[in-house]
Write a structure and sequence with these properties.
Strands 2-1-5 form a three-stranded parallel β-sheet, with helices on both faces. A two-stranded parallel ribbon has the order 3-4. The chain is mostly helical and 260 residues long. It is elongated, with a radius of gyration of 22 Å. Helix 3 packs parallel to helix 4 (74-93) and helix 6 (109-120) packs across helix 11. The model is unreliable at 1-9 and 90-99 (pLDDT under 50). The protein folds into two domains: 9-126 and 223-257, 3-Layer(aba) Sandwich (Rossmann fold), CATH 3.40.50.300; 131-204, Arc Repressor Mutant, subunit A (Orthogonal Bundle). The longest helix has 20 residues, at 74-93. The chain has helices spanning 2-17, 22-28, 45-59, 74-93, 99-102, 109-120, 135-148, 158-170, 178-181, 185-203, 209-222, 224-233, 247-257; strands spanning 67-71, 105-108, 131-133, 206-208, 236-239. It contains 13 helices and five strands.
């Protein structure tokens, strides 16, 4: 019995590292502190990330809920969740109703922010039952704003207006600050629409996708108690396709990581 028990961690270690090349193994078994991986498409970056999560739980004793794994699409998040569950095994990963309690926080930037805002957003006046407007909803509001401002939507396409508003939000530029960063005739039109668009979102108790990130960054900047709570919760933060993060996403990650 003793021989069997002693061999179990070693077998688990062999399973987690099996099939990885030396560079991948080095990344998976990395100690504390930041690590940035440069590798080409199809070289196994996501595989390294999922094995790293399993390694942290199985060999470093990390609590699953102390790990935050972020990616860009729901498909990638679901695949990551399934891979980690398989690596950890049915006993540790849980099943159906219990899986969420046994696995790390895994999701897209938007999904993670929405979840955290429903948890702590009330500290900055955001109601927990806020709506999240999709692309169609956003375009509808932009068209309404254009009509209300008596601006021809044939001359100023709603999609183009929304695109510039979205780019501003990615830079964490509010409607009030928009005019300090964007100048020009079209930009002036977008600035007017931006302010009214935000008013309409607030009237409908809604956020758009870019607002999820902006609101979360503002919450972390303004509320030290929330910032410290989440920094203490998420001891390990892993980001798939990190090279694709925008300014708002980078600011979010930096605030969550703190000085680590």
């Amino acid at each position: 019995m003793r021989a069997s028990t002693a061999a179990q961690p070693q077998n688990r270690e062999s399973d987690l590292l099996a099939g990885l090349n030396p560079a991948q193994r080095e990344a998976v078994t990395h100690g504390d502190g930041p690590l940035l991986i440069f590798a080409g498409a199809g070289s196994g970056k996501t595989r390294v990330l999922t094995h790293r999560v399993a390694w942290l739980i199985s060999h470093r004793g990390a609590h699953p809920r102390s790990i935050l794994a972020v990616t860009f699409t729901n498909k990638a998040a679901n695949e990551m969740r399934e891979r980690i569950a398989r690596l950890l095994g049915a006993e540790e990963a849980g099943n159906g109703t219990r899986q969420d309690a046994r696995l790390p926080w895994i999701g897209t930037f938007h999904a993670i922010c929405a979840r955290l805002l429903r948890e702590s957003g009330e500290k900055t006046g955001l109601k927990r039952d806020f709506l999240v407007y999709d692309d169609g909803d956003q375009l509808t509001l932009v068209r309404e704003a254009l009509r209300q401002l008596q601006i021809d939507d044939k001359r100023f396409a709603p999609r183009a207006v929304l695109s510039l508003i979205s780019r501003a939000k990615e830079q964490l530029i509010s409607a009030e600050e928009f005019g300090n960063h964007y100048r020009g005739f079209f930009e002036d039109i977008c600035g007017r629409v931006y302010g009214l668009y935000q008013q309409k979102l607030q009237m409908n108790r809604a956020l758009d996708f870019d607002d999820l990130l902006m609101a979360m960054v503002r919450l972390l900047q303004q509320r030290q108690d929330v910032r410290e709570k989440l920094q203490d919760r998420f001891r390990h933060i892993l980001v798939d396709e990190y090279q694709d993060v925008n300014h708002a996403q980078y600011a979010l990650l930096k605030l969550l990581a703190g000085g680590r």
